[in-house]
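**User:** Everyone, produce a chain:

**Assistant:**
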Amino acid sequence: MTRKRFFYPVILSVAFAVAAAACGDDEPAAPTSAPATTAAPATTAAEAAPATTAAATTAEATDTEAPATTAAAEATTTTQAPTIDEGDVMQAPDRVQDDETVVIAWTGYFNSLDPPDSLVNFNREAGVGLYDRLLTYSLTEREDGTFVWQGLGVAPGLAESWEVDGGSVTFTIRDGVTFNKTGNPLTAHDIKYSFVRAIEVPGFGTFNSNLAGIFEPSRQLTVIDDHTIRFDYELADGTPFLLKASLASMRFPIFGIVDSVEVQARATEEDPWGHEWLKENPEGSGPYVIESATPGTELILSRVPGHWTEGDQNQLGQAYNGFDRVIYRTLNSPADITALMLGGEVDVAFALGTRELTALGEAGFTIVNAEIPDIWRLDLPVTTPPFDNLAVRQALAHAVPYDTIVENVFTNATRSYSIVNPASPSFIPSWDVYDTDLDRARELLAEAGYPDGFSTELFYNTERQEWEDIALFLQASLSQVGIDLALRPLPATDFQEQTTARYSDDTLMPGIQMRSGLIWLDDADPNVNLWLVTRGFPGPVGVGGFSNASHYSNVELDTLHFENRFNPDLEARSEAYRETQRIGARDLPIIPLAVRGFPGAVHPAVTGIAFTADPHLRQYLLRPTG
């Protein structure tokens, strides 16, 4: 049998030193009441977790200024996995589906197709194919058929060209683009309407608009004619200021352009922005439309003939020749995904653990890994006893088995010493004061008045096996200092919905919450603004605390953030964010666990995986090999 070698493309994040970023967190949707769940069986971590070791590291920690911008392709390396002996590697199974169809595994399902309503990963990925955006990623195709994004570089999307004049950018819109369902022509009026409504509907529209320097889109966006629109970027006080990432932000799924005529026709007095309609009825001009949707089970997309992406050399780097049908199939577990991939029924999957990736690699699948920093963490409810006691939180930090988790749960991961992207120029390893020290944990619990420990709960989602593995390791380690940890696994969508409810009600999910967040741009701003800033804090340059599930609040930290997020003195800005990390490590509302990439498995008959800062598949780039 022919020997195969498996390559792990590693996309190194691009450091830049000006404020603006976005991140896709393990984020929630609409509130719902918590189901009555029970603790997981008392299985020991040693029995349940895989015995594997970490295979790679992330960007090296540094306390110095990083380069302003670096092309991602220049910072990209491809490393070879250990050679597998002759005869040990199987050929990948034949695909069940035809050459015009690709099947992608999901572990959950979308709950809204309204672009700004993007708190759920599945919403964003579906939106990539259903909607066009003003600009898109500048991509380079590599020899292995994958694409890699070019730092902050942008390429034409709906805007075929643009001119920059100080803080103003004038975009020229493609002629002949129509919305898929209605046939209405897409004009500059649709673009302005989409940006205005982005800050009015639930989701990350306000967050990302503010990061890009858009605070009042109704005033800052000017329609010149049907095919021309001007964006006047500025700070909240009106000062013209074009951020290095202002244009890059236009690439994200949150800024999909909607059919303003159709959406306004669906608006009601109770729902003036047509949000309820768009949740289930996408009104976009993207390269795909919905062929069928079975809630919780399957989403099938069909390619739009003659879409502007076809053959667009500037956009794709090659002629468009993707699959006619894209099937997203919701599956219950990584084991189910692996079984179907080995049976030739699923082609692409990213929600896989080390065991599954190893098995699929040995079976002939291509294993890929995008090094987008995914920070895994514990959120502690600091307003609820016993977590309102700092010594209790410190005891927990010393009871976490960090090395055991990193070495036995992940591939391509290291311990995380901060809640900030390691590639950020502001990163410092401020959480390194907490090592695994069970004796110190017991001392702290005694000081806090809990010499015999206490009982609490750990909430996490079941999207990936790693969550369960980490939970078991935590349960075993915390039990040694007297903390009885009841495991509360929830399906991904339920977990996300209940997390949203927890933001406003600290009695929901009252224990520890385990989550992760993918960082889309290399900067400290989004992490601090999302996770540490007081929830709803109305700073002078935007609102913070969107994902502050710990209910943490510190006026000093809030002030440092909002006074420096757009500070042109880059060293002063970096030092301010270093100080926010010191404060966060001192107050400990969050315990970082690990930082990892975004690994997946792909059938060798499929190519065109694109590694972008937001880790959502560009369906229109996927194509048959050869």
The radius of gyration is 24 Å. Residues 570-587 form the longest helix (18 residues).
